[in-house]
Amino acid sequence: MLTYKGYHGKVLFDEDSGLLHGEVVYLRDVITFQGKSTDEIKQAFHDSVDDYLEFCSQRNEEPDKPFSGRLMLRLPSDTHRKVYVRAKKEGKSLNEYITEKLSLEN
């Protein structure tokens, strides 16, 4: 995973073209880049992020930001209590417990 100015890029190799293709992830907007080597793909990623930020600036638009990882959640108080008790029984913080339960890998 590439990181630049708070943006994250995912890179895949296309065997047919012999190129590395990348996409900035965790955004609603689509930002792509490509290169033939690791140095080229890193530079293309940086250039694409910079171009995106410049494009947004020229249009006086706020650029899309990657997800912060913070999620505000409101629960009924009885549900909150039950989840808290389950987390404590497993020796976990409420955040750890909920993150584990929401993980797509489980």
TrEMBL record:
- Coiled-coil regions, chain positions: none
SUPFAM superfamilies the UniProt entry points to:
Ribbon-helix-helix, TTHA1013/TTHA0281-like
Enumerate the Gene Ontology biological process terms. regulation of DNA-templated transcription
What InterPro entries would the database entry show?
Ribbon_hlx_hlx, TTHA1013/TTHA0281-like, Uncharacterised_HicB
Transmembrane stretches in the record are none
Q: Which domain of life is it from?
A: Bacteria
Q: What is this protein called?
A: Putative nuclease of the RNAse H fold, HicB family
Q: What is the lineage of its organism?
A: Bacteria, Pseudomonadati, Balneolota, Balneolia, Balneolales
